[in-house]
Specification:
Blueprint (H helix, E strand, L loop, with lengths): L3 H9 L24 E5 L10 E5 H10 L2 H6 L4 H6 L1 H10 L14 H5 L2
Antiparallel strand pairs: 1-2
Length: 116
């Protein structure tokens, strides 16, 4: 027996013949493969955020490597604001030449490491 929630999800699935719309990453403007899709809370959950946006896993990791949760909640709670940050601009330029399914481990910025 399948639970009621799962039944609703199955009923809402796109028929096999229809191709689902591609989800574009609002950070790097590339299509996100299902295997690299992460939900990012625009304002961190720990700061009361509820709204999420899908991002490439590598873009999501880069955001959390560069910014604290407080910074994300107070200053960088929108994709365009994140894109305009100089460090993110360098990252976006670098990742834009990579395949959509590309992933590489991300390191925390030295600024965040030294603040602990």
């Amino acid at each position: 027996m399948i639970g009621k929630i799962r039944q609703k999800l199955i009923a809402q699935e796109v028929p096999a013949l229809q191709k689902p719309a591609e989800i574009m990453c609002p950070i790097c403007d590339r299509p996100i493969p299902a295997s690299q899709r992460d939900a990012h809370h625009l304002i961190p959950k720990s700061k009361g955020g509820k709204t999420t946006e899908y991002l490439h896993r590598i873009c999501h990791k880069q955001i959390h490597a560069l910014f604290t949760e407080t910074e994300l909640a107070q200053q960088y709670h929108h994709a365009q604001i994140l894109r305009d940050h100089p460090e993110m601009k360098k990252f976006i330029e670098w990742v834009s030449n990579k395949p959509n399914s590309f992933y590489e481990k991300t390191r925390k910025s030295s600024r965040l490491k030294s603040s602990k």
